[in-house]
Amino acid sequence: MNKAVVTRFAPSPTGFLHIGGARTALFNWLFARHHGGKFLLRIEDTDRARSTDEAVAAIFDGLDWLGLRGDEPAVFQFERTPRHAEVANQLLASGHAYRCYATPEELAELREQQRAARQPMRYDGRWRDRAPEDAPAGAPFVIRIKAPREGETVIEDAVQGRVVVQNVELDDMILLRSDGTPTYMLAVVVDDHDMGVTHVIRGDDHLNNAFRQLSIIRAMGWEEPTYAHIPLIHGSDGAKLSKRHGALGVDAYRDEMGMLPEAVLNYLLRLGWGHGDEEILPVARAIELFDIAGVGRSPSRFDIKKLENLNGHYLREADDSRLAALVAPRVAARLGKTLDEKQSDILVQAMASLKPRAKNLNEIAEGAEFLFKNCPLDFDEKASALLDDSARALLAKTADVLQPVQFWTVEAIEDAIRRVAEDAGLGLGKVAQPLRAALTGRTVSPGIFDVLFLLGKEESLERLAAAGHATVG
Ligand code: GLU
């Protein structure tokens, strides 16, 4: 590629950053990074009724979380209205556009006739070749492009391949409305040009627009970008992705589902792009490998299970302090109290035994909760059932053996518990079960030696004593 690559992500701020938008952003970002180019952001806020500041904030927030930041400050399309109008007037002056004075009533009538005749509904070009003297004085007008009428327009799309449209199908679309505001189609083209965009990578729902956009680009004599229209994401059942399938805001993956951004990125990358069988593709590897040729032509199916598995992988890889910081507010929410410094340290230490089994941060928080509960614990049904008389006798013996342990290390704890088991003529599991119930109130937890270690000697003995005395069951 000889010209420096410039890509852009151009969301309309009418809602949160959804998973499809995030994937489009990712592909643009990766493509730019792979080629050492630039990735730009443009907020397409010309629809004033539907664009909101909250949506703009949510989009930036989602992109930030994923690490997909623009290389320059974002462009806000609405602020560039004068520039869009300028280009429309330039096209007018060069004869590539014309003023159309057709009234709304006339156009409604035209549509009605076309409908009755079962013809495609499109503007008929009635002002295209009229002499300027015909213009009704002072009447409102729109500016329309003189679209090519003969021949065909071809796009060599980097994903879709060669796509051809007969020019008779392209009508003379409006560039500037009668109130002087530019249309979306004009704004996109002017902004892409002024931002120096070389590659337009976006959802294939915009493929039809590309033909119309090209007629403006050609009329201006501007360089044409490379188009890459990527297939949309479908739900696991093959239907268009909706909320039911997980078409949620990126924030829901972070906040409600407790996913790590690197897992979401890896998942989105694999959703529609592939490199052999490689599933685990951290960002650096993705930058190294990404190319448009690896983007498939058929819609990809969203599979939450795959995302969860990837998340599990990245949780296991993640640094314990970072994880603990992400988990702490979730633990606090479950407990209804914030963790103090000592508890926060314990949480960091607990990560190594909590993360191997977890698929998301919520599961880690759930697994960590027992560490910070006040004694006496609440025992769930299964745990209560385990704490019968013989179990309590065993707990008392265990407490006796643990009491003299001086250096509270996992090894020393293991030694002690093995001794209890031997003396009682029981397997380790048989000792661990009631012990786990007494210490955590549950029947599932990290390994029992880790549990004892993380709780510390004092708290462990207190819990054993409490379980021994408590009337449970
Ligand atoms: N604003 C459009 C959207 O959110 C994208 C336009 C484009 O990428 O050209 O769907």
UniProtKB/TrEMBL annotation:
Lineage: Bacteria, Pseudomonadati, Pseudomonadota, Alphaproteobacteria, Sphingomonadales
Main function: Catalyzes the attachment of glutamate to tRNA(Glu) in a two-step reaction: glutamate is first activated by ATP to form Glu-AMP and then transferred to the acceptor end of tRNA(Glu).
A matching Pfam family: tRNA-synt_1c
Family: Belongs to the class-I aminoacyl-tRNA synthetase family. Glutamate--tRNA ligase type 1 subfamily.
Aminoacyl-tRNA synthetase class I anticodon-binding domain location: 324-467
Name of this protein: Glutamate--tRNA ligase
UniProt-listed PROSITE patterns: AA_TRNA_LIGASE_I
UniProt catalytic activity: tRNA(Glu) + L-glutamate + ATP = L-glutamyl-tRNA(Glu) + AMP + diphosphate
